[in-house]
Write a structure and sequence with these properties.
Strand order of the largest sheet: 4-5-6-7
Low-confidence stretches: 3-41, 68-93
Mean pLDDT: 84
Number of strands: 40
Strand content: 35-45%
Shape: globular
Length: 684
């Protein structure tokens, strides 16, 4: 019997399941990324028997995408023409600041690191790093510059050593670095901080994706474009490469490397998994989680569309023709195109009204089908890799619906993994199937608790998990701030919601009862909203059932920006003194250009770059203490926007009572308590 009959029966059954699993249906089961029912994760991982088997697997998956644009375009044209662990709430036990990290005890690389008397920072050109002696604020100065024939990705200070992660410059072309990455870790001894000695250089596997330092170990996550790999440059034998036997494209070989910083004679340990390209990474003290988007292959999607839609709406004689084509010999994409041709040829000979009616219905069915597929056939595969000392081992993998915004949408707490996702899509016609979800998984990455359908029609702009609570900010026109109770992993609940103008791109725990939000103000225009200046929020979450806004403050007009909106390492909190320091690129609307109040879409003109210092108090709220300006348009003949602006502040740090703000051209030194100027250090 022709396999098409089996497919039709399966599709009919699948259609019935889909009808039961509409977004508000409340069914706890989930359609997996490969068309089956998933209750405890996707298929098991395999290993290859040989490089030839790996090559065949990659080519097969690449072929599943060939012709996808042609096929989709043809159908469209026819219809037209015819935490949780946090960063200790920003507190520091030492008298100097350190990098703002997501998980306490898990250090993150950055372009600036400092101790109590020296700072180490990457130059604007990214091909050198400076060492700055800051033992005396008044006489602070650059004491050394070290050049690299490549690009420095990040720095670490660990165990009395300076770590430099850098990528060798191989040619002028970006794609050479992408296809043939050559990344190294340089470990310098800092017995003499102003003259570091290179202890060892490690060649790392894959292009830079992420890294962390936990205890004595540096962990590196690197990616190689899988289609550019040959057998001679595999990091591990094919028999040790893990993969899921399902569609993805393009593939990367993601490798995990553990380097012992205390014993440089020990060789690194490497493990590799074949994964899709796009991913987000969360690292706890014992695990690395990689979450990447997965979906049905384009060819499979078109085959399902033919069986689920075409065979339902065409006449019997055309249905027979389609079945014969799909059951016949030939490549899968060729058969899909042949079906499209057969349908077009059939309706060329029909009346105008009959043809128009068919293609109108086809377009409607295509829209409905795409919405259904986006809801139930896209999702996130999650891989857990255990990291304990030198041991780096695959531990588990699982699946949840929707896409992950960033690493702050993920968290590990008390042997559970929490993740927030957005699923569905919005169409140009205004219809939307977008919704947001929070899932709780056990250490086998099996879903044991979930809340789905949060804020329909809106998308997640920021998320944070703190202990037994979770916080989400979604946005369309206003900022709904959601507080969740996660104390029962099997029964998570949204308990409180607060709606206020604007939105938060980044959430930061200030204390057990308050959360800082950093984002933009917004003017509600009915069907949409105009973004305005940078906005700080302080939320009171003492009562999770009813979160409140303690305070907010907006800086600048439309066009004002802060690097801290997208780069948490630029967010500096001094909890002991109740100070928050963030970089601001200020834009102000020229009032003289308007008669009366400027409209909400009026874009401000670039005015200055610097840092803004705020006081934060859970009783009195947020207040602006002052600012330190690195560049002002009004006081200079130099006029520049913030793109590649050498005076744009990228980081700040403090030592004792002194604040240092860093831009590409200079470091400004100011008193932390009153921001009076102490010194200016000009960078080479």
């Amino acid at each position: 019997m022709c396999i098409i009959v089996t497919i039709i029966v399966a599709i009919v059954l699948l259609a019935g399941i889909m009808l039961k699993l509409e977004p508000n249906g409340g069914d706890s089961q989930a359609l997996g990324p490969f068309g089956g029912i998933i209750t405890s994760g996707p298929k098991e991982l395999k290993t290859f028997h040989s490089f030839s088997e790996m090559y065949t697997f990659l080519e097969t998956n690449r072929n599943l995408s060939m012709g996808s644009y042609h096929s989709g375009a043809a159908l469209t044209l026819m219809s037209v023409s015819s935490s949780s662990e946090g960063s200790s709430y920003g507190t520091q036990n030492d008298q100097y600041s350190t990098t703002n990290v997501q998980v306490e005890g898990v250090d993150e690389g950055d372009i600036l690191k400092n101790d109590n008397d020296h700072a180490y920072l990457v130059s604007t050109s990214m091909n050198s790093f400076y060492i700055v002696n800051v033992s005396s604020a008044e006489s602070a100065r650059v004491v050394k510059e070290s050049f690299y024939n490549g690009t420095i990705d990040e720095l670490y200070l660990a165990h009395g050593k300076l770590l430099v992660v850098w990528s060798e410059r191989q040619s002028m072309y970006y794609y050479d670095r992408y296809l043939h990455p050559n990344v190294s870790l340089d470990v310098y001894l800092l017995e003499d901080k102003e003259n570091p000695i290179l202890e060892r250089r490690y060649k790392l596997t894959g292009g830079y994706e992420a890294s962390r330092v936990i205890g004595n170990y540096f962990y590196y996550i690197g990616k190689d474009y899988a289609y550019s790999i040959n057998e001679s440059n595999l990091p591990v034998p094919p028999e040790e490469i893990l993969y899921v036997d399902e569609y993805d494209n393009p593939y990367t070989l993601t490798s995990f490397t553990a380097v012992n910083l205390a014993n440089t004679n020990m060789e690194p340990n490497i493990k590799s998994i074949l994964l899709g390209y796009s991913s987000n990474i969360y690292v706890s003290s014992n695990n690395i989680y990689i979450a990447h988007r997965t979906r049905m292959s384009p060819i499979e999607k078109e085959e399902v569309f033919i069986n689920r839609v075409y065979l339902d709406i065409v006449p019997d004689e055309l249905r027979t023709t389609i079945s014969i084509i799909m059951c016949g010999p030939g490549e899968r994409w060729d058969k899909v195109r042949e079906v499209e041709t057969a349908v077009s040829r059939y309706y060329v000979n029909r009346s105008y009204l009959e043809t128009q009616a068919f293609y109108y219905r086809l377009q409607q069915e295509r829209n409905n089908f795409n919405n259904l597929m986006d809801n139930w056939h896209t999702g996130t595969l999650i891989y857990r890799v255990s990291v304990i000392g030198k041991d780096v081992d695959y531990a588990a993998h699982g699946f949840v619906r929707g896409d992950v915004l960033n690493r702050f949408s993920m968290d590990e707490y008390e042997n559970h993994f929490r993740i927030a996702t957005t699923s569905g899509q919005s169409s140009r016609s205004g219809t939307s199937t977008v919704k947001n979800n929070v899932y709780i998984l056990n250490m086998n990455l099996e879903v044991i608790g979930q809340v789905e359908g949060i804020a329909p029609g809106e998308t997640i702009y920021s998320a944070r998990f703190v202990g037994n609570r979770g916080y989400l900010v979604t946005f369309k026109k206003i900022d709904p701030f959601f507080a969740m109770d996660l104390s029962d992993p099997q029964n998570p609940k949204v308990l409180g919601e607060l709606k206020i103008p604007g939105f938060s791109n980044y959430l930061h725990p200030y204390s057990d009862t308050s959360i800082i939000g950093l984002g933009k103000d917004a003017a509600d225009m009915g069907d949409f909203a105009w973004f305005q200046g940078v906005k700080l929020f302080l939320f009171n979450v003492t009562n999770v059932d009813s979160p409140t806004e303690l305070s907010n403050i907006t800086i600048g007009d439309r066009g004002t920006n802060s690097l801290a909106l997208t780069e948490p390492h630029a967010f500096l909190l001094n909890k002991a003194d109740g100070l928050l320091i963030i970089p601001i690129d200020l834009a102000l609307v020229n009032q003289s250009h308007y008669n009366g109040t400027p409209p909400p879409n009026a874009y401000g003109e670039y005015a200055s770059s610097g840092i803004y210092v705020f006081t934060i108090n859970e009783t009195t709220g947020i207040a602006l203490r002052g600012s330190v300006t690195h560049f002002e348009v009004a006081n200079s003949s130099y006029s520049h926007n913030t793109y590649n602006n050498p005076y744009q502040v990228t980081r700040a740090f403090y030592i004792d009572d002194t604040l240092y703000s860093v831009s590409g051209q200079l470091i400004k030194v100011n008193k932390l308590n009153n921001l009076t100027s102490v010194n200016t250090i000009y960078l080479p």
